[in-house]
Amino acid sequence: MKKFIQKLFAQKLASFSQRKGLMRSKKVNRKGLAFGFTLIELLVAALIASLLVSVLLSFLVGVLDSDRKETAKSNAQEELQAAISYISDDLQEAIYIYGADALANINSQLPHTQAQSSSTSTKCNSTDCTPVLVFWKRYNYNPTATGKYSKTNTPQTQKIGCMPYTGTPLDDCKSADIPFGRDTYTYSLVAYYLKNDTNLVSAIWSNTARILRWELKDGYAWSCSNGGVLSTATTPPTAPAGCPPVAFAAQRSPTTSPLITTPTTVDNGYYFIVPDKGFNRPDFTSAGTLSNLAGAWKKFDDFNFGTNPFTTLVDFMDDTDYKANQGGGNDAGVATSATTASEIKIPIGKNITITASGLTAITNPDCDDPSVGVGNTNPASASNIAGTVTQRVPDAFATNNPSRLTSFYACVAPENVTVRIFMRGNALARLGVAKTNRAPNPNNITFFPTADVRSFGRSGVGLKKK
After folding, report:
1. Omega before 440 cis (within 30°)?
2. What is the pLDDT of residues 429-459, one digit of tens each?
3. Nearest CA to 302 among 101, 108, 150, 137?
4. pTM for this model (two decimals)
5. 195: which strand partners?
6. Which residues of the chain have pLDDT under 50?
7. With b meaning 16 or more CB within 10 Å and e meaning fewer, what string describes 102-129?
8. What's the CA gap between 129 and 350, in Å, rounded?
9. How far is Cα 377 from Cα 416, in angstroms, rounded to an integer?
């Protein structure tokens, strides 16, 4: 009887469980009892799992975003360092670097003032390009490089450092060849610009700001190791025994400058490599300072931007518009009123004019300071008017600064051929942040990496007669 009652109770319990547990799993055990999770339990578990996944995903997204920002800052700093190192190496061959006043004198002769027919992305004109570093340097042609020289019939390719005795191309300088010009050098004019690309619609560049480089080279003059005579105004170069025939040399075209007409400038020289169109040699031998002589330079002809294009050195320069409370607008040597911590400070003030004993000099005491400028052991002052002049280029950021930017400027000591270069990048632009949202502030100032370097060119000794 007891077993019968227990069996009946178990059947009733099973029946009750089936009726009351309709939301449970249909899986049953061997005795017929159903078990599992309710729908509410499953929903709660799913919610908890989704919350955990969300937290993990947000953490992962944060890590990736942080890595992307650090990569952008690192890339900006590395490119700045590479660019400033390139310019510093370029300046090692400089024989004269233009200060602000001499640069203003030749501004109309520089390429950004000449009309250009090239594409918008490669233009550099007087409305968006500021010349910062303009200098003359020594340029040596590689004596083992090859070039085509003009013959009366067909141009022949020869090595620059040697010409064949027979006129037949040879692979190398041999006993029958005549070497020439191996130890000579030429001049070239180099200009570095800061270009504002904010309004440029380009799929190539960042549409922020770039540093551009432009160079104009002299030719490789005809000469002969056996006493050939260089050309004069009326006589072509002679070709004595053992020298290549005159037909190997060519003249520039036109030989008379269409731009320098008073006095008329003529170049009847013969060249193995003709000067770039527009090149004209600077006069560093006449009386006067190097700055006065360099400031009188004029181009021979209009430039050819097909053979002498603007090339981009570095992109993503800072395109933050200049503001007065950054400093840099006050006179050099006068404390700036800039106090806003969110603004990028400019440590170099404007150039000042000093006058003493009837003499005038334009100089910059901030650039004299070795901690921020070039360092100057003989600075010009009211008590030392004949001292060495240093100048900031550009002189004014609010005026005479077509790019309207401050991310590339320099302190120059022209007569000492010394310069200190300042650069500033913009990593926020690399992250796609719109200009309206990337103004510098205390929270993002690390996204504006800076770099500066002091560079020395060649000594001016021997350039001009005393």
Report:
1. no
2. 988 888 888 888 888 888 999 999 999 998 7
3. 108
4. 0.81
5. 129, 210
6. 20-26, 150-153, 165, 169-171, 232-234, 341, 465-466
7. bbbebeebbbbebebeeeebbbbeeebb
8. 20
9. 11
